Amino acid sequence: MSPIRVVVSGAAGRMGRAAVRTIAVQSDMKVVGAVGRSRALGEDAGAVAGTAALGVAVENDLDTLLARIPAEVLVEFAPGQGAVAHARSAVTRGVRPVIGATGLSARDVEDLTTLCESHGVGGIIAPNFALGAVLMMAFSRQASRYFPHVEVIELHHDRKRDAPSGTATKTAQMIAGARGEAPPPKVQEEEIVPGARGGTVGGVRVHSVRLPGLVAHQEVIFGGPGQVLTIRHDSFNEESFMPGLLLAVRRVMDLKSLVYGLENLLDQ
């Protein structure tokens, strides 16, 4: 069986470089292209993966790259709307997007879902590729049925642009879907400092912390009579996301529509 031909977008970033390193050593995958705006990208891809030996093509523009080489999967780490534009371009060419970028809106997800269905192309959007984080979200959804009082605290490095994180947003959405309407507050709250109580996603309070020294961390805190349940996940480096990324690249080959959330693939 031929290896899965993968293009990595956002390959000059830390996650992209880790993806190139990881995919390059898989026997059933092959990195055929890399997209990034850093001049060092070609040197990094060559040093890590062996550009010449693996036939890795390096471009600053995804459309230019996809016109040059046949690809089956796009691993996308470009931020926000860049990721959406890249995914659209990939789907129209029959290339399956595996998106790890954050900052996508609900409308973006809906539009990409429609596009994938119309072209019969599978795709995956994963707010978090770390399998531990995916399990944290699944456990939180289960717990919310018994502990409706819950708040989410997400902590990331100070280079992260969006807040709350995609993982926190997805967690809150899953909790809201499982528990239903949020319980009413015990008192009429008054924020002395605006934003002190965080933001809300589906009625779930979400708090964002940005500090140097952090990587990606999240606590989901449930309160009940006489007890507190805390579910926490910590990622300490980019390698924590790679097993989930490999799972997504392999599973997307069998999909005919878009899947939002890696948890939907764990039981298959």
Q: Could you describe the 3D structure shown?
A:
- By secondary structure, the chain is α/β, with parallel strands linked by helices.
- The protein has 2 domains: about 5-125 and about 240-265, Rossmann fold, CATH 3.40.50.720; about 130-235, Dihydrodipicolinate Reductase, domain 2.
- It is built from 9 helices and 12 strands.
- Strands 3-2-1-4-5-6-12 form a 7-stranded parallel sheet, with helices on both faces. A 5-stranded mixed sheet has the order 8-9-7-10-11.
- Helix 1 packs parallel to helix 2.
- It is elongated and about 60 Å long.
- The two termini are about 20 Å apart.
Keywords:
elongated, Dihydrodipicolinate Reductase, domain 2, 268 residues, Rossmann fold, 2 domains, alpha/beta, seven-stranded parallel beta sheet, 9 helices, five-stranded mixed beta sheet
Topology:
Elements: E1 4-9, H1 14-24, E2 29-35, H2 41-49, H3 51-54, E3 57-59, H4 62-68, E4 73-76, H5 80-92, E5 96-99, H6 106-119, E6 123-125, H7 131-144, E7 149-156, H8 166-179, E8 199-201, E9 204-210, E10 216-224, E11 227-235, H9 242-252, E12 258-260
Helix pairs in contact: 1-2, 5-6, 7-8
Helix content: 25-40%
| Biggest sheet, spatial arrangement of strands | 3-2-1-4-5-6-12
SSE pattern, N- to C-terminal? EHEHHEHEHEHEHEHEEEEHE
The CATH class of the largest domain turns out to be Alpha Beta
Radius of gyration: 20 Å
Uncertain residue segments: 38-53
Secondary structural class: alpha/beta
